[in-house]
Amino acid sequence: MSELLYINGKRLVIDQNRAIGSGGEGEVWDIGGGVAAKVFKTPGHPDYAGTDPQSERDRLGAGVRLELLQRKLPVFPRLPGRVVTPQDLIRTKQGQIRGYTMQFLQGAEVLKSYTRPGFRNTAGIDNNAMQSILLDLYDLVSSVHRHEVQIGDFNILGVLVLNGNCYLIDADSFQFGGFMCRSFTPRFVDPLVCKKDELVLAKDFSEKSDWYAFSAMAFETLTHVPPYGGVLKGTVAKGITQDDRPLYRVSVLHKDVTYPTKGTPLDRFSDDFLHYYERLLHGDERGDIQHDCFVMRRDGTIAADQRAKEGADSWLDGFMGKAAISLSKGDGVTHALLSIGDSGMFVSRSETDPRSKQRDGRTHRAFFTLPTFSFRQIRGSMLFVTTRSSWLS
């Protein structure tokens, strides 16, 4: 890096031996004090020096990106603490923005690592711990959305995990206000925002497309197989490339796809889990993911369930006959002792819960969905669950 750069008027000194990483858009260095510097590549960067069409596109993209960042970074919104957002801007002597500083998460592991059984085994990450990580990521994404911000290019390399907590990185591509995200990762982009016959963006990202990406990451971390992994066989395979499979809705659950032997056997997951992903990947169903429950079955595998608002009460009534439940309260936390039915699901409501109250002429009851769980095997199918309850309204 030959260009002189400054942070708040002080020259930025880069130690080339402290590089953290380099991608298609920029380079990141550890500059000490728990701070990292991200510097975007200019059209003249050596990585773009080729004469081939891709290099020409890269140079054009770098110029457009730098022009956008001049307007976007100075008005970047305040987001939750575990979103690694721009801190101080990095400028040229003439004042042009070239990058920014951010928190450096020493020792953090990219979420992609958790898709590898070997890593999980070595790190001691069992299904309970993996579920806790996913629920933490769910809460973090929800908090970003509450700030009217979309992640956009949400992918498994843009999430770091440190001490069981998730962090979102690459925030400079987040979508807010009039600043649309135009980059995407093929394995995690919602095909509904792409052209029908080509993985090219045709629509703006949305909260729904963020939740699609979240579900894709959850599937891969739980099964160790990407949603569109496996080997496509038979006549349907003709003319469909691996990258194009999302366009044709040919996921790893498709009857003509051979499920990889490295993956967790699908019969270890509930029918609800598989049906949810069939609806998502094959049926183009989207919606508010807070009504999808990722829960732990008695055999230690994951189940997922989606219940519509209209049918939730009748489902709860039917379920109560299969579960013995006692509730106690303390410090704003509900403790529930449940005897789980054959479905392996757990859910509870309490008429005496002070949060169950009349609103809009209806009784609103506590409904356990996507909170933070801690599990302890009691005996048989008994579990002790500590949870924050959320509302189904």
What does this structure look like?
With 393 residues, the protein is an alpha+beta fold. The protein has three domains: 5-103, Phosphorylase Kinase, domain 1 (2-Layer Sandwich); 109-306, Transferase(Phosphotransferase) domain 1 (Transferase(Phosphotransferase), domain 1, Orthogonal Bundle); 321-393, no CATH class. 23% of the residues lie in helices and 24% in strands. It has helices at 53-72, 117-123, 127-146, 207-223, 245-248, 271-281, 309-320; strands at 5-7, 10-11, 19-22, 26-32, 35-40, 89-92, 97-103, 109-110, 159-162, 165-168, 194-195, 198-201, 231-232, 257-258, 292-296, 302-306, 325-330, 333-339, 357-359, 362-364, 366-367, 374-377, 382-387, 390-391. The chain has a seven-stranded antiparallel sheet. Strands 17-18-23-22 form a four-stranded antiparallel sheet, with no helix packed on it. Strand 9 (159-162) and strand 10 (165-168) form a beta hairpin. Helix 3 (127-146) runs antiparallel to helix 4. The longest helix has 20 residues, at 53-72. The radius of gyration is 23 Å and the shape is globular. Residues 295-393 have low confidence and may be disordered.
